Amino acid sequence: MASEPQGGLTEYISHHLHFLQSTHDGDFWSVHIDSITVSLVLGVLFSLWFWLKARKATAGVPGKGQAFVELVLEFVDGQVKDVFHGDRRILGPLALTVFVWVFLMNAMDLLPVDLLPWITQKFGVEHFRAVPTADLSLTFAMSLTVLALVIFYSFKAKGFGGYMHELFTAPFGSSPFLWIPNFLLNLVELLSKPVSLAMRLFGNMYAGELVFMLIAGLFSAGSWALYGMGIIGYTVWGLFHILIISIQAFIFMVLTVVYISMAHDHH
């Protein structure tokens, strides 16, 4: 249920798009406390959940919880195996963490729009956004972490000299006249990876969040017809959004694996 909008639907949506910040609006440096808090809580719950299932795992007929965890593990491992043909001892757990963590953060969009803000207001917190992946700062932080891993594995697989040689000689050749064009092209390719990762995830989740807010605004319109349309719309969009949050988590995971796999390849 949506709370009564003060000043109409526009102000209602604007109110829900504010983050719980460590500083005032307009300051250069600002920490979005709500995004960090929700993402950390979900990360801890995910780690605890899988650790408990792994601790209680049996070789016999698995229970429903163990069967589900094994299904997720096999699915992620299969995707990594199809893309990366090297040692998967690190990349497999990394892909699993990315997939489940991003999925859980995306799934916060399925909660009623006013639920967490209503709870936090009881503790005197005016603004609170529940979907971390609808925060561009957080998606860019995740994508920059992937970029750091890509650079690390590039140096690890090719060595400092080999990677520097590749940056300045691929793809046009090793002529000194082509060093600058080669480097600029590789730099653009390298920087485009975190941008595409962050913007794709943020754009889809931000749009989905806005749709939920628009539908939630119908509940406070004062019309039974609009109220009924809101319930139907919320249900239909929620069911469709399950597909969106799953696809976005899958894409983020696969691209992470692909980018790290490309870091191991030699031109």
UniProtKB/TrEMBL annotation:
One of its GO terms (cellular component) is plasma membrane. The keyword Transit peptide does not apply. The chain crosses the membrane at residues 29-52, 90-108, 136-155, 205-227, 239-262. SUPFAM superfamilies: F1F0 ATP synthase subunit A. Key component of the proton channel; it plays a direct role in the translocation of protons across the membrane. HAMAP family: ATP_synth_a_bact. This is ATP synthase subunit a. It comes from Frateuria terrea. The lineage of its organism: Bacteria, Pseudomonadati, Pseudomonadota, Gammaproteobacteria, Lysobacterales.
